[in-house]
């Protein structure tokens, strides 16, 4: 696997449009330090002598891949730094004017790119991400990132029903698992359990009435039927494991 890739060279164009499509395999365990680094080079087509470098860097830019528990996707407009980047720059946003460095066009965003992600790990839906981030924060022991409060968690659970259909279907089982876990082992008051139960009811309604193409011959949601089927299998396996350990 390569760690860098080069685009096509644009000849004598001050505003080049590079149409290269680059596919990357990103790590599963992303953190705030993961980023994409873009280096811009000047290519000398007619060097004056043999010792002259054919290419040399003229600017840098970067894009953090993971921010606030979310994968960075969409269209981005980045500034270009003319000096070598300092250490730990990847933890900062390129919108931050780094000290003691020069920027092209006074730090204006001059480099545009688009990122599309195909992932089974990151929902790429703000409502689902807010819910997953909130639930995962309950196990946090970091004082700087305390667990989410009850009202915020209730709001996140209720907001799940606003998710787009595609990611909702893809992550339905994960959502149901976490909602049931919050009911069975609620970290706060009964208000949270009630909100989670109501959300499950809304999800059942969505799967049954709105996603009618997924219904079986008895009018039951195939998604929910499969979930219940495999949930029972998982529970049987867990009980056997518990009995053996006991």
From TrEMBL:
InterPro entries in the record: C2_DOCK-type_domain, C2_domain_sf, DOCK
C2 DOCK-type domain residues: 1-118
GO MF, one example: guanyl-nucleotide exchange factor activity
GO biological process assignments: small GTPase-mediated signal transduction
PROSITE patterns: C2_DOCK
PANTHER family referenced in this protein's UniProt entry, alphabetically: DEDICATOR OF CYTOKINESIS DOCK, LD20667P
Family affiliation: Belongs to the DOCK family.
Protein name per Swiss-Prot or TrEMBL: C2 DOCK-type domain-containing protein
Species of origin: Strongylus vulgaris (Blood worm)
Source organism phylogeny: Eukaryota, Metazoa, Ecdysozoa, Nematoda, Chromadorea
